[in-house]
Amino acid sequence: MPPLPKFLKNPLVWLGALLLLGALAGGAYVGIQAVQAAPPQPFPYVHSVHLQSGIQCIYCHPGVLRGKSAGLPTLQKCQGCHNNIDPAGKPALEAWADYASKNKTIEWVPVAIQPDFVYFNHNPHIAAGLNCEQCHGDVSKMTVAQSQGDQNMGWCLSCHTRQAPEKQVKLTDCATCHK
Asked: Contacts by 108-111 with C-beta closer than 8 Å and gap 24+?
């Protein structure tokens, strides 16, 4: 084995290399966290309060039963319940009443988005007995819905390969998810 070049014997070179690697790892971590952070919403909606009140996911996200997107609730959907709640003395409800009184469209920012090249439909997943929490996390314990950052091809395939052997070919065929 040839001897190390002279500059590699200097402890400062090794310290510099370690600091550089640490900075790169830290930057990567911060970058990943920033990408996975919940986007700011037009109104501070608290999922946990609504779920603890007994409201099911599909009430506000009825698209889950019909197609690719779960859908996001409209002002009218929210007001269907909130018109029957007295906001007096409850700051969050008073803020909602003020927001709703302006009768603007709520421009929610989707949290769980698949790339355009991925075909996704909730129906087969619901038919397979999956619950919302299995893919979206336990939203009932979240103040704000958080992206589950591991929703990528490897994550989907790992679930698909755990399914019944007779479904393996279809569930792992590229055309199942990429149209």
From this structure: 108/41, 108/42, 108/45, 108/72, 108/73, 109/39, 109/40, 109/41, 109/42, 110/69, 110/72, 111/38, 111/39, 111/145, 111/146, 111/147
Q: Residue 121 contacts by C-beta under 8 Å, 6 or more apart in sequence?
A: 67, 68
Contact 64, 126 (CB under 8 A): yes
Is the pLDDT at 27 greater than 90? The verdict is no
Nearest to 44 by CA among 6, 14, 89, 78: 78
Q: For residue range 164-175, what is the model confidence (pLDDT) as tens digits?
A: 788 888 999 999
Distance from CA of residue 94 to its chain's centroid? 28
The Cβ-side half-sphere exposure at 21, using a 13 Å CA radius, reads 6
Question: Residue 122 and residue 129: Cα distance in Å, rounded?
Answer: 11
Q: 28-75 pLDDT, tens per residue? A: 777 665 555 677 888 878 888 898 889 999 999 988 988 778 889 999
Q: How many CB atoms lie within 10 A of CB 46?
A: 13
Question: Can you give the pTM of this predicted structure?
Answer: 0.69
